[in-house]
Amino acid sequence: MKKQIHLNAFEMNCPGHLSHGLWAHPEDQRTRYKDLSYWTQLAQLLEKGKFDALFLADVLGIYDTYEQSADPAVRLGVQIPANDPMLVIPVMAMVTKHLGFAMTASTTYEQPFSFARRMSTLDHLTKGRIAWNVVTSTLQSSAYNFGLTDSVKHDERYEIADEFLEVCYKLWEHSWDDDAVVKDWANQLYVEPSKVNFIDHKGKHFSVPGPHLSEPSLQRTPLIYQAGTSGKGKELAAKHAECVFIGGYRPEVIKRNVEDIHRQAALFGRKSGHIKTFGVLTVITGRTTEEAQRKLADYSSYFSQEGAVLHYSANTGYDLSEYQDEDYLQYTETNHGQSLAALFTKDAAKPKTVGEIKHELGQIGNRGLLAVGTPEQVADQMEQWIDQTGLDGFNLMQVISPGTLQDFVELVVPELQRRGIYRKEYETATLRQQVFGGTSGRLPEDHPAISQLRKGNTHDAITY
Amino acid sequence: MKKQIHLNAFEMNCPGHLSHGLWAHPEDQRTRYKDLSYWTQLAQLLEKGKFDALFLADVLGIYDTYEQSADPAVRLGVQIPANDPMLVIPVMAMVTKHLGFAMTASTTYEQPFSFARRMSTLDHLTKGRIAWNVVTSTLQSSAYNFGLTDSVKHDERYEIADEFLEVCYKLWEHSWDDDAVVKDWANQLYVEPSKVNFIDHKGKHFSVPGPHLSEPSLQRTPLIYQAGTSGKGKELAAKHAECVFIGGYRPEVIKRNVEDIHRQAALFGRKSGHIKTFGVLTVITGRTTEEAQRKLADYSSYFSQEGAVLHYSANTGYDLSEYQDEDYLQYTETNHGQSLAALFTKDAAKPKTVGEIKHELGQIGNRGLLAVGTPEQVADQMEQWIDQTGLDGFNLMQVISPGTLQDFVELVVPELQRRGIYRKEYETATLRQQVFGGTSGRLPEDHPAISQLRKGNTHDAITY
């Protein structure tokens, strides 16, 4: 059997996400983001297209680096207004049977005890279709809103994330035995107390005795997504993530990152087959090359370069309004998110001028791979990237919503299925099984949540 | 027009809630709490019965006071396992048009910035049907799970709650102007930046510059519920709550509490008509007195006195296993929740023995009013209590779910409607309008969120 491509859709609970300015396009429906029906229709479309999951991004702050002001982001609607991602998942679960839901949540601003219960609740309600995209949060404006005087230092953020995950694993995997819930009506025994364990976690950042409040769900631990490109970020992904999200548009750089993740994961004792990698892909398709190109030109006329530039400024910490177009932007590791700086400078053979960077940012699909063409051309391109990079699939970005995905599901999905590289039907299973196969929705034994932590050894720490 | 009765259903996302042991009853369906369909069916039933709202309790800890062990609570399933209440609301909103949803969340363990966004998201998705039951959390086991060495002191909890509410009000009411969202396609102006205000809150417990991430929802501030019986709790309720939840079963004590709330609210400049009070009521009804009594006897045979006693022990901080039945339990103010201690000792003319308290706890409906009888008898009783106490309505507890509410909706609701004291149809409106009428779903001008805080005066504090 040929290698199967896995697909997620990449969206956010706001009118903007990454298609800056496209809310003004007459076909874009993202301004309906406050309506339940917007989300149920999107979920039904994705299930029709046999996607693994809808991946919901999130940001708990505002982009105020560019021109040292929040005004440009507010004016252009760049990820503000933005609502909570978690709360649209239950309705999407109700109208689907197989589609998974990956939600972004930050280990810097959540509390593991209540967060773990929320994820267990979602895993129960969706019958094992939940994934968690682990982020550590970079924005200073977020930090201020949580009472911190500055964003938590980069390395400390990852240390906190590591311990946060450890607490969650203890709650999800090691607090309740599989057979703890007895429901023995005659003896008034709902749960066998000897099978519910306190976790007694006492660490540097968290102290959580437990027990977990939720009984075991189908997956216990949600499928773990992570997008790490910095040194520490890659380490976190290699250690914990099952699905790793890799930005960039140059196949040789993506290939290097894919290999890095697998190599580092092996150092943590994890099998290569237990990690899948996903590129970021924008697809604009039509029945003819001309139709696809016409759509690209149409969408591009709405795309806001300023929106992309201010987003880049906030993500990298470089206020591009302070540079001349001829200045060179040299990549340096900062406290702030460096994925975009890496994407646009490290990816290239040489540093780029600010003018060149702005030009690139002004293009549709600026954050990853872009395929424009007929279904055959797009499928060829996708197969070629998979071959060149070792990626297992893609997170598909929408230009207009849900139009971009409608086109993809209608035109490209049948072509991928015809080639035998994409599922024709779901297997009835949890999200983890949809992505990795197997007979159980649970984490594999080589995952640190299992291999490094044991029930009863409540003072274990994940160390390597 | 006669005074209209308002009704909420009182439930929790767990198999137990307050009907300890009833999960063993063959007709009880609460063990389906992990299924979306359990909640959608319950919501549809309540909307058929023209209820104001489903009120969801919550606890972020475990009851381990009794016998100084968590085992009895685990064994009997007393509010463990328990899932997050927030996540079942979106699906219930999807299958209803008018029913409101009151969710419990603690000001001690949430962060106001992200919490305010979650509530705004729910208010958007439900189109203005969200209420928040403000609690401050009393359990030591909760405190430990949030890294605290002891539960936050009683008075400090209320001080934190007061500031938490202030931050939320600033985000909900004063950050975005009503006309901030412009969606001016031609000029790439999604939001007018001058109409989005930083709140710049700097207080003793929270520092939140804002702005709020969500655009204004129909209600902006969710309808505020509170149940306060201690001195500080009553003060918090009188200052902030629109719907006040009053426990107890002796009409003269309820009456005194109702009057207290209105008197204290007046001191805060609030109109009496902007506060409604709700008693706690269990109704067991049948077509004949005998049928109702048979149900009571049947349910009582499943009710777990031990479950009620351990719940009481955790809520009051008195481990009843340490007392003899002949001991007298004298009410004293403690760091822990005193509502039940107050209920069972202060309510009475004299202190009670532990044996008497245990006996009372072993009865169905032990936390409030109990009506058992035909629809006419129940309606008579409800009318009488309303007359005697000044209450505006009731939070209805279920013995078996959804059977208790099915009986009520089928038998008692038509009787209340026939008497002209209960709505026959919903008006199309927000939850706040369903409860208070009026043409707007927004907070009234005399509420401290409006009267005490003004846009631009970002350093205001609510002081009285």
TrEMBL record, chains A, B:
Domain named Luciferase-like: residues: 30-391
Say which domain of life the source belongs to: Bacteria
UniProt xrefs under CDD domains: Nitrilotriacetate_monoxgenase
**Which residues are FMN-binding?**
58, 104, 154, 158, 230
**TM spans (from-to):** none
SUPFAM superfamilies referenced in this protein's UniProt entry, alphabetically: Bacterial luciferase-like
Q: What protein name does the entry list?
A: LLM class flavin-dependent oxidoreductase
Origin species: Paenibacillus roseus
